[in-house]
Write a structure and sequence with these properties.
Elements (H helix, E strand, L loop, with lengths): L1 H21 L6 H21 L5 H24 L5 H20 L2
Helix pairs in contact: 1-2, 1-3, 3-4
Length: 105
């Protein structure tokens, strides 16, 4: 269940990051409420995942995959540009996450 909780926490993290954009500085009520719920859900499920993972591994994977997911969704939803440099950076993050996963058995 540890990895399931971490996966759910990552989805919440992506929703939180994307939702923050929709709040317009937390001046819009419902996007702000949903963003805060996503933040709380992310922290809660991350805390459950950290019961079975080292914090260094769990937190790094959460932020790394969450960041990459946010960039991908930002490109899809907000038409943000994906340059070669960005793609190489994301590949580096994913590579690091894979190495962390393989060495945290």
């Amino acid at each position: 269940m540890t990895w399931v909780y971490l996966g759910i926490a990552i989805v919440f993290e992506i929703c939180f990051a994307l939702g923050t954009n929709a709040t317009r500085g937390f001046t819009r009520l419902w996007p702000s409420v949903l963003t805060l719920l996503a933040a709380g859900g992310g922290l809660y499920t991350l805390s459950l995942a950290l019961l079975g993972l080292d914090v260094s591994v769990g937190y790094t994977i959460w932020t790394g995959i969450g960041g990459v997911g946010t960039v991908i969704m930002g490109a899809i939803l907000f038409k943000e540009k994906l340059t070669l440099a960005r793609l190489l950076s994301f590949a580096s993050i994913i590579g690091g996450v894979i190495i962390l996963r393989l060495t945290s058995v």
